[in-house]
Design a protein that fits this description.
Length: about 290
């Protein structure tokens, strides 16, 4: 166990599933944990549960964020920085999979914005606070699904020109999570900031429970869910990367079950990582 007393952590999607369990683990080690969640009632309930389970009374806070809105990401950062001047751990965990194409208030395909663009924006807006937490850690929850993406279609990241395939769009965003991690690591001094990505395993969380994965998923998921690991087990690699002294200074890596492994070849494409960064900068005006 590390002692994170005095450290500040942000967990997006910390109200549910893997994120909530990761928040418990990080709070148990003494950090002040900010749950960034879109639903205030769910966030409040999670806060009470995390405080109780982590014995962290007064050290868990909720600040609203809707990752489907860039304005909301800015509001989150305004509220956060009015209260805190540092971020030691940023766990970009929130994510969703959608069967049908949907767009955000900013006009982007929803998975692209929630799973990638808004986390890109959040991380960049927190640049100074992360520098104050040096050596700060950014941990991005990707997925094995990134291996299913055959590269990125940079001419159609919003899926306007192709037939929409929800899982393909999801896989592409999970590839973006690894590319973003590697490019962030490349652009950062590891004494100031490290960035790593991970696959949590197949986890029986609330993920894809609300008919978001179409008929096949609705029929198939209940059949395979008994083989899923618990959210607590799925959170172990997130907690490890966020807190363990064993990974101090390690950066730009992709972890599965607590070990650095090679991601898919497309995730190692440095030109794609740079191009994604530059496009994301333009789209989010970060
Ligand atoms: N479960 C798996 O098998 C699995 C496998 C590989 C990777 N992952 C990744 O693990 C991460 C966590 O997922 P999970 O399994 O813990 O699923 P989960 O229980 O559904 O949690 C997802 C979290 O993301 C939040 N979220 C979704 N859209 C949002 C938005 N617009 N603004 C703010 N928050 C939003 C959800 O908020 P609400 O509660 O309000 O919906 C929830 O807190 C995701 O990035 C996912 O891609 C999961």
């Amino acid at each position: 166990m590390s002692d994170l007393t005095g450290k500040v952590a942000i967990v997006t999607g910390g109200n549910s599933g893997i994120g909530k369990e990761a928040a418990v683990g990080i709070a148990r080690e003494g950090a002040h944990v900010v749950i960034a969640a879109r639903n205030p009632a769910k966030a409040a309930a999670a806060r009470t549960e995390i405080e109780t389970r982590a014995d962290a009374r007064g050290r868990v806070e909720t600040i609203p964020i809707d990752l489907a809105s860039f304005a909301s990401v800015h509001e989150f950062v305004d509220v956060f920085t009015a209260k805190h001047d540092r971020v030691d751990i940023l766990l970009n965990n929130a994510g969703l999979v959608l069967h049908k194409r949907a767009t955000t208030v900013d006009g982007h395909e929803t998975q692209f914005q929630v799973n990638h663009l808004s986390h890109f924006l959040l991380t960049n807006l927190l640049h100074d606070a992360l520098a104050n937490g040096a050596p700060a850690r950014v941990v991005n929850v990707s997925s094995y699904a990134h291996t299913r993406a055959r590269g990125l279609d940079f001419d159609d990241l919003d899926w306007e020109r192709r037939r929409y395939r929800g899982f393909a769009a999801y896989s592409a965003t999970k590839l973006m999570n690894v590319l973003f991690t590697r490019e962030l690591a490349r652009r950062s001094d590891p004494d100031v900031l490290t960035a790593n990505a991970l696959h949590p395993g197949f986890v029986g969380s609330n993920f894809a429970r609300e008919g978001d994965i179409g008929l096949l998923g609705t029929i198939g998921m209940p059949l395979i869910r008994p083989f899923a690991i618990s959210s607590a087990t799925g959170a172990l690699t997130s907690i490890f990367l966020a807190t363990s002294p064993d990974v101090a200074g390690l950066t730009g890596l992709y972890f599965v079950k607590g070990k650095a492994v090679k991601p898919a070849a497309h995730a190692l494409d440095e030109a794609a990582a740079t191009r994604l960064w530059e496009i994301s900068e333009k789209l989010t005006q970060a």
